[in-house]
From TrEMBL:
It comes from the Bacteria. This is Enoyl-CoA hydratase. It comes from Rhizorhabdus dicambivorans. Belongs to the enoyl-CoA hydratase/isomerase family. It holds the Pfam family ECH_1. The lineage of its organism: Bacteria, Pseudomonadati, Pseudomonadota, Alphaproteobacteria, Sphingomonadales.
Length: 250
């Protein structure tokens, strides 16, 4: 099964997409005909640019905090459902992966990315805590010191650099090579001993779930605190006005 994030040109998340992502993996778990899942983005420019900053500004200026709280519940369901997905998940990162897009990319069991595309957890750049999974997964995949370097700055890595640091499985120079890596692995896994493959994945994810499932609520709570900050409002305004934000640490 192929799931495509479709909101061209950057495939930024919007409320309906976020809601669907929060339950689609639970639905797939109950489908006996699905053996492997490939998650990708539409087009060849971006896997996903993450959250829509203009929508962030709308929420803040209208005090639509209920929408934010719904999003936080959905974010928790999304991480939980991916960790509990019994079938292998391959992320085909066909372009830039930012914010939530970066989190989705690294939550795959296998993650292959165009080597010139960029991946970054950009939460701090919009005045938010990296609370929707990045601060959990990046340190486990690439080590705490390197993860802090990128999570505390929001700086990007290329797909090639991300593969070298262990953040993703591998990178590809062309779309054809990317497809060969992703769908070649999908075919190999689908043709394998499904019960054994799925049970082995579940065994590995038991360790991840023990580490992560008790933490995500606290991380999303920290993100909510920063959502209410003046710095986040300033970042949203600055994006809309096409200028550099002037953060005050408030």
């Amino acid at each position: 099964m192929v799931i495509t994030l479709h909101n061209p040109p950057m495939n930024a998340s919007f409320p309906a997409m976020h809601l669907e992502l929060s339950h689609i993996f639970s639905t797939i778990n109950r489908d006996p005909d699905v053996k492997v899942v490939v998650l990708t983005g539409a087009g060849d420019r971006a896997f996903s640019a993450g959250g829509d900053v203009k929508n962030m500004l709308r929420r803040l200026t209208t005090a639509d905090h209920a929408a934010w709280l719904r999003g936080m519940r959905e974010a928790k369901d999304l991480v939980y459902s991916i960790l509990r997905l019994e079938k292998p998940l391959i992320t085909r990162v066909n372009g830039h992966a930012m914010g939530l897009g970066a989190t989705l990319a690294v939550l795959g069991d296998f993650s292959y990315m165009i080597e010139t595309a960029q991946i970054a957890d950009t939460h701090v750049k919009v005045g938010l805590t990296a609370g929707d999974g990045g601060s959990m997964m990046w340190p486990l995949l690439m080590g705490f010191m390197k993860a802090k370097q990128y999570l505390l700055t929001g700086d990007p890595l290329s797909g090639k650099e991300a593969a070298e640091l262990g953040l993703i499985t591998g990178s590809a120079a062309t779309m054809q090579e990317l497809d060969e890596l992703c769908f070649g692995m999908a075919d190999r896994l689908a043709g394998g001993a499904t019960l054994a493959v799925n049970a082995t994945k579940a065994s590995i994810n038991m360790l991840l779930r023990r580490l992560l499932e008790g933490v995500i609520e606290a991380h999303l709570g920290a993100e909510t605190l920063t959502y209410l900050s003046k710095d986040h409002l300033e970042a949203a305004k600055a994006f809309n006005e096409k200028r550099t934000p002037d953060f005050k640490g408030e």
